[in-house]
Amino acid sequence: VIGNVTRFTYGLANRLYARRETAREILTATVSQTYYTDQNAVDLDQQYQSSFSGAAPTNFSPVAFVVRASPSDRFQADFRTEWDARVNALRTLAANGSVHAGGGLFASAGWSQRRFIPALPGFDDPARADHYLNATTTLRSTANRFGGTYSFNYDLRRDAFLQQRALAYYNAQCCGVALEYQVFNLQGLTNVGVPQDRRFNISFSLAGIGTFSNFFGALAGGQQAR
């Protein structure tokens, strides 16, 4: 943490409203940048995605472009990118969205990329040029009597799943049961003797008593996939 630093954030914002019963903001676009009195503070500002990268000190942050859309209560999306004026290149890009498709169907997804920029210190290592995709889908019955969720994290640069999770449950008036299966990709991690970790969990719930799960954690945790 750097003390005795003054920063000034300036920018431009445009908002689009739709009026039905009440006014609703459906689209927002902002452009902003921050000036720091201490050059070393620029890489420690958590409001910028590309901070903590080891980039060369400067008094000016990257220029952040953010677009948010919410045309209805059932759909939201946003996009953000940060542009470095010194090398005329985009440092990072990210997009997220969620939708309630009606009934008990919910879905969300996210995408992010940290770009390789040879002329910019902190971004000149191709091994740190991350590129990820994640998504979650949930389906529930009307009374939430049964349902399930599937989610994953995917490394687009290495073309491999980092994690996958599937959950299914059933609830009756007196009790309920839930099954969960997870797979973790451990390849590339040091001090790990297996390339993949698979886990299966089961839990029961009894009305007025509580929830019980397997006492020893994952039934197959830490075992190598075959």
The sequence of SSEs as H and E is: EEEEEEEEEEEE
Major sheet size, sense and barrel closure: 12 strands, antiparallel
The radius of gyration is 23 Å
Q: Could you give the distance between the termini? A: 47 Å
Shape annotation: globular
Mean pLDDT: 88
Indicate the low-confidence ranges by residue numbers: 218-226
Number of helices: 0
What share of the residues lie within helices?
under 10%
- Order of the strands making up the biggest sheet: 1-2-3-4-5-6-7-8-9-10-11-12
How many β-strand runs?
A: 12
Class from secondary-structure proportions: mainly beta
Strand content: over 45%
Commentary on this structure:
By secondary structure, this protein is mostly beta strands. It is built from no helices and twelve strands. A twelve-stranded antiparallel β-sheet has the order 1-2-3-4-5-6-7-8-9-10-11-12, with no helix packed on it. Strand 8 (146-155) and strand 9 (160-171) form a beta hairpin. The chain is globular and about 65 Å long.
What is the topology?
Elements: E1 7-19, E2 23-36, E3 63-72, E4 75-84, E5 89-102, E6 105-114, E7 131-140, E8 146-155, E9 160-171, E10 175-185, E11 196-206, E12 210-213
Antiparallel strand pairs: 1-2, 2-3, 3-4, 4-5, 5-6, 6-7, 7-8, 8-9, 9-10, 10-11, 11-12
